[in-house]
C-alpha cells in the first residue's frame, strides 16, 4: 500500500516536474511582466508628477516675467510649456501666449496658439475660453463663418452662455440681427445661477431698440 502511495506521489511529482519544465518559463515570464508592468506604471506616474511639477515652475516663471513686463522672457517660458505638453500647463501657456499676441495685435499668431491641440485634454473651462478667444480672433480677421463654425462645434456643457454671447457678437458683425438676438436670448436663458445678466441684457436691449427704431 505504501509502495502504491509512493508510486502515486512519485507520479504526481513527475507530472508536476514535467508541467513546470513545459510551462515554468512562461509562468516566470508572466510574473516578470506583471512585476515590470506594475513598476512601469509606478515609474510613469512618478515621471508624470515630476514633469508636472517642472511645468508648474515654468508657468510661475512666465507669470513673474509678465508682472515684470518682460514679454520676451514670458514668451520664452510659454513656448517651453507648449513643448513640455503637460496638462493643464500647456493649455495655460497657449492661452497666455495668445493673450500677448492679441495685446500686440498679432492676430494670426494668436490664432495659431489658440488652435493648437494643447486644449484637447485640458479642463473644460480652458477649452471653453480657448474656443471663444479663437472665435473672436477669427472675427477680428473677418473670418466670421469660420468663427461661428468653431463656436458651433462640440458644445461644452456648462459654458453655453459664454459661447452663445460670442455667437451673438459675431452675428452682429455680420449684420444678422435676428440671429444675434436669438443667440443673446439663448445666452440669457443658459446663464448659470448667480452669474450677472446685465452685460448680455444690455446687448439684447440695445439690439431690440435698434430694431424698433
| Backbone shape | elongated
Q: Give the SSE order as H and E letters.
A: HHHHHHHHH
Structurally, the number of domains stands at 2
Number of helices: 9
Gap from first CA to last CA:
114 Å
The low-confidence parts are: 1-17
Question: How many strands, what sense, and barrel or not for the largest sheet?
Answer: none
Overall radius of gyration? 30 Å
User: How much β-strand is present in the residues?
Assistant: under 5%
The overall strand count is 0
Mean pLDDT: 80
Q: Structural class, please? A: mainly alpha
Helix content: over 70%
Describe the structure.
The protein is mostly helical and 213 residues long. It folds into two domains: 1-122, no CATH class; 128-213, Serine Threonine Protein Phosphatase 5, Tetratricopeptide repeat (Alpha Horseshoe), CATH 1.25.40.10. Helix content is 80%, strand content 0%. The chain is built from nine helices and no strands. The model is unreliable at 1-17 (pLDDT under 50).
List the helices and strands and how they pair.
Layout: H1 2-67, H2 71-84, H3 89-103, H4 107-114, H5 124-140, H6 144-152, H7 160-173, H8 177-189, H9 198-212
Amino acid at each position: 500500500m505504501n509502495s502504491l502511495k509512493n508510486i502515486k506521489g512519485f507520479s504526481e511529482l513527475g507530472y508536476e516536474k514535467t508541467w513546470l519544465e513545459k510551462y515554468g518559463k512562461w509562468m516566470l515570464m508572466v510574473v516578470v511582466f506583471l512585476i515590470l508592468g506594475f513598476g512601469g506604471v509606478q515609474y510613469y506616474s512618478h515621471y508624470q508628477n515630476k514633469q508636472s511639477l517642472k511645468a508648474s515652475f515654468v508657468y510661475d516663471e512666465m507669470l513673474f516675467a509678465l508682472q515684470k513686463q518682460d514679454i520676451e522672457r514670458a514668451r520664452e517660458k510659454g513656448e517651453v510649456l507648449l513643448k513640455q505638453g503637460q496638462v493643464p500647463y500647456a493649455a495655460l501657456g497657449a492661452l497666455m501666449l495668445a493673450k500677448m499676441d492679441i495685446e500686440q495685435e498679432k492676430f494670426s499668431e494668436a490664432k495659431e496658439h489658440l488652435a493648437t491641440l494643447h486644449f484637447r485634454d485640458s479642463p473644460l473651462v480652458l477649452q471653453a475660453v480657448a474656443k471663444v478667444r479663437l472665435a473672436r480672433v477669427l472675427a477680428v480677421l473677418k473670418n466670421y463663418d469660420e468663427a461661428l463654425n468653431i463656436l458651433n462645434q462640440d458644445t461644452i456643457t456648462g459654458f453655453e452662455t459664454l459661447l452663445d454671447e460670442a455667437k451673438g457678437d459675431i452675428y452682429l458683425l455680420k449684420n444678422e440681427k435676428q440671429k444675434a438676438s436669438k443667440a443673446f436670448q439663448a445666452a440669457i436663458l443658459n446663464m448659470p445661477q448667480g452669474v450677472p445678466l446685465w452685460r448680455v441684457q444690455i446687448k439684447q436691449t440695445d439690439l431690440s431698440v435698434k430694431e424698433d427704431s
